[in-house]
Design brief:
Layout lengths: L3 E5 L4 H12 L3 E8 L17 H14 L3 E5 L1 H17 L6 H20 L4 E3 L4 E4 L2 E4 L8 H4 L4 H4 L2 E2 L7 H10 L21 H9 L4 E4 L5 E5 L26 E6 L4 E5 L6 E11 L10 E6 L6 E9 L2 E10 L7 E6 L2 E11 L1
Parallel strand pairs: 1-2, 1-4, 2-3, 4-7, 8-11
Antiparallel strand pairs: 5-6, 8-9, 10-11, 12-15, 12-17, 13-14, 13-16, 14-15, 16-17
Length: 356
């Protein structure tokens, strides 16, 4: 059955090949590039982002080669409100957000999908490396490029209108196919870091918006070891850039253990103090083949993008997800997503609020 498909084209190789595959399969495809900045020059330039004028031109050229209509949709205001402002406010509250995950949730599969369905499209296709089989979200066959984690926030309804054509291919195969199709983006480097921070300086970006406010860096006993210019510049598990005045007696490195925004205090300590076995997460979304786990469910959990996977037991109680890890994890930060898996199948996700 032929579908009307809106192909989100970032200007990179993945989304170009995804659009080409959908068109070749006989579907009625329209390409769309999302303009996410009212001032594109303020976002990453070259091949390092997905929001630049260069990316828009690359997407248009790819659409021309594929032979599909192409449009640019202005999503700058929505992106700034739902992704950039959310990013700043999360850091201000002592949490560590994932803006790519939020962009997928609020922009690509809320704002864009809603508009696409209103215009009569059946589905939205993207270049994410993940598989979607019978409505079930699974990891990509390319473990190193798998993006199922940042798609774990999507609802079953959103997944029912999504197409991820690349999940069965490795990145190397995608690049080879792009070259064979005559797509100029075949060798374009992958984007890295955060697209809306032009120079990659997250701390500077936050300082500009939140202001510098000096505060103490303390150890677990409360002894002051140094000062910082803003607690938002740190994240749980961080080791570098602490610039402490007093070294440890045994010479071992210290890590950020917690961030308290109200008192503007950063607490540091030994690596073993980072270990957590219990996680609380809110805003749960269950999009997999199993029902909400009102009894303990044996599964696996991933706690950050491209992070380690841990065996666990997950249980939903009072709208809050409680996760008991089989083995302790380190560097668990509030604000990140906990995505549940059964093997390579995504079961659902929730946003981490506390750990112990």
């Amino acid at each position: 059955m032929s579908l009307r498909v809106l192909a989100a084209m970032s200007g990179g190789v993945d989304s170009a090949v995804a659009a080409a595959r959908i068109a070749e399969a006989g579907h009625d495809v329209t390409g769309v590039h999302l303009a996410l900045s009212s001032n594109p020059q303020s976002y990453r330039t070259g091949a390092r982002g997905c929001c630049t004028l260069e990316d828009s031109r690359d997407a248009r050229r790819a659409a021309d080669v594929i032979g599909i209509p192409f449009y640019v949709w202005d999503m700058a205001e929505r992106f700034h409100r739902d992704v950039v402002e959310d990013f700043v406010s999360e850091y201000a509250a002592g949490r560590t957000p994932n803006p790519c995950l939020r962009c997928n949730e609020k922009i690509k599969f809320e704002a864009v999908l809603d508009r696409a369905l209103a215009l009569g499209f059946d589905a939205v296709a993207t270049g994410h490396h993940a598989r979607l089989e019978d409505g079930v979200l699974r990891r990509s066959v390319d473990a190193g490029k798998d993006q199922s984690y940042v798609l774990g926030v999507l609802t079953r309804e959103q997944l029912s209108h999504a197409i991820f054509p690349l999940g069965g291919s490795t990145k190397a195969e995608v690049r080879e196919e792009a070259a064979a199709r005559g797509l100029a983006v075949a060798d374009k480097p992958d984007s890295h870091d955060i697209c809306f921070i032009a120079d990659g300086d997250t701390r500077g970006f936050l300082a500009e918006r939140l202001g510098a406010e000096r505060g103490p860096i303390v150890d677990e006993s409360g002894a002051v070891l140094g000062t910082h210019a803003g607690a938002y510049g740190y994240t749980v598990g961080q080791r570098k850039g602490l610039h402490l005045d007093r070294p440890t007696s045994d010479g071992r490195p210290r890590y950020v253990l917690s961030i308290e925004p109200v008192s503007n205090t950063v607490t540091v300590g030994p690596r073993e103090a980072l270990a957590v076995s219990s996680i609380v997460a809110e805003r749960p979304v269950f999009n997999g083949p199993v029902a909400e786990p009102h009894e303990p469910l044996a599964c696996q959990v991933q706690l950050r993008a491209h992070g380690e996977v841990y065996g666990c037991r997950a249980q939903l109680s009072g709208g809050v997800l409680h996760i008991a890890l089989d083995t302790p994890a380190t560097g668990v930060a509030a604000g990140q997503a906990a995505v549940l898996y059964s093997g390579d199948v995504v079961l659902g996700s929730a946003t981490i609020t506390a750990s112990s």
